[in-house]
Amino acid sequence: MNPPAAGEGTSDLSSPPPPSPVQHAGQATSSSTSSNNKQQTTTKPEDELLGIRREFVKRVSDPLINGLLDDLLHHKVLNFEEKDFVMNQKVEADRARQLIDTVLRKGERASQTMINYMKVRDSHLCSTLGLISSPTG
């Protein structure tokens, strides 16, 4: 079990998540100088998830949690034990907490994958949470 290092590809997450209007896969976000100042203040995916955690727990639905669990299991962000542990929580808010906390502990790639699938599955919620700022072409 090798935890992924920041910016390092891992074989267990080889299938890329769907494209995100915010994340540009393959582009360096660290101290490289970019001629485009478009993404000057990039927020780490973990910070984004942590920032929306409270509202996510309040607003998320069971169908969204179940869909995210399927997506994250398919892309090997979660394993079956982790998925089952989330599913076995009795209260919807506890399932939401367990899901987001498990993904947060896994780091940047896992957090970005969850954010990407949240945008695909419930763009209205993502807009409410501030993950989608405005529609861009």
Structure characterization notes:
- The chain is mainly α.
- The chain has a domain at 42-129: Death Domain, Fas.
- Helix content is 52%, strand content 0%.
- It has six helices and no strands.
- It has helices spanning 45-59, 62-74, 80-87, 92-105, 108-121, 123-129.
- The longest helix has 15 residues, at 45-59.
- It is globular, with a radius of gyration of 15 Å.
- The chain starts with 44 loop residues before the first helix and ends in an 8-residue tail after the last helix.
- Residues 1-14 and 19-40 have low confidence and may be disordered.
Features:
137 residues; mainly alpha; Death Domain, Fas; 6 helices; disordered N terminus
- Biggest sheet overview: none
- The helical percent reads 40-55%
Mean pLDDT, all residues? 79
Number of helices: 6
Report the CATH superfamily of the domain at 42-129. Death Domain, Fas
Return the string of H and E elements.
HHHHHH
What CATH architecture of the domain at 42-129 would you give? Orthogonal Bundle
